[in-house]
Amino acid sequence: MRRALVTGGTRGIGLAIVKKLVAEGYLVTATYSADEESAARAMECVPAAEFVRADVRDERAVEALFERFSSLDALVNNAGIDLYKQVQDTTAEDYARIMDTNMRGAFFCVKHAVKLMLDMGGAIVNIASVWGEHGGSCESVYSASKGAVIAFTKAVAKELAPAGICVNCVSPGVIDTKMNAHLSSEEKLALEGEIPLGRYGTPEEVASAVCFLLSARYITGQVLGVDGGFCL
């Protein structure tokens, strides 16, 4: 049975990815950082998956996580947090928290996943964002972190291609998750009006894109937008 690891897999896009991978026949392990309540709900929702507490910002914790596996076919770096602040109000602590989770965590997981994939090949999908491609007002550090994920993806894709490891990004647009909870009703409506398809995306639509890239053996180094035409 194929084995997959999904970071940040207990809610929203991450949980949708876990459900989709289980349905596709993967043996799935998913991580969470601290939210035990969400983890408990996820365990009830997807009993076939394994949910493990692990802080991806901590390399020792990531090393311990990967000691669970003798092999790994797929890695999805979904763990991420956002920040909605004007740049002049953003603190050094804010910057470190966002970059450590969104980029440092992805780096550590790729680093250790590759050790399990070098002999047999595999697939890695990193979750980026349209803001990482185009920048988002009042989300400068979040945008920077996701831009770094995109550049990292392309560089690692070149490096790992000779080993048969495909590395790609999914770049969600405005998706109906708790990450948009900071928006007012008026802001949500205005943002929805900017989307050519006229609605927010769903976590399940992002999960479908992730599974497509995990199964594609001649696609690497790409950024697949799931944004309803938002960036056209």
Your description of this structure?
- This protein is of the alpha/beta class.
- Helices cover 45% and strands 16% of the residues.
- The chain has a seven-stranded parallel sheet with strand order 3-2-1-4-5-6-7, sandwiched between helices.
- Helix 1 (12-23) links the parallel strand 1 and strand 2.
- It is globular.
- The model has no long low-confidence stretch (mean pLDDT 96).
Outline the fold blueprint.
Blueprint: E1 3-6, H1 12-23, E2 27-32, H2 36-45, E3 50-53, H3 59-66, E4 74-77, H4 92-117, E5 122-127, H5 130-134, H6 140-160, E6 165-172, H7 185-193, H8 203-215, E7 223-226
Helix pairs in contact: 1-8, 3-4, 4-6
Can you count the beta strands?
7
Summed up, the helix count is 8
Strand portion, in percent? Answer: 15-25%
Give a short account of the largest sheet.
Answer: 7 strands, parallel
Q: How are the strands ordered across the major sheet?
A: 3-2-1-4-5-6-7
Order of helices and strands: EHEHEHEHEHHEHHE
Helix-and-strand structural type? alpha/beta
Could you estimate the helical fraction of the residues in percent?
Answer: 40-55%
Report how far apart the termini are. 39 Å
Mean pLDDT: 96
Tell me the radius of gyration. 17 Å
The rough form would be described as globular
Low-confidence stretches: none
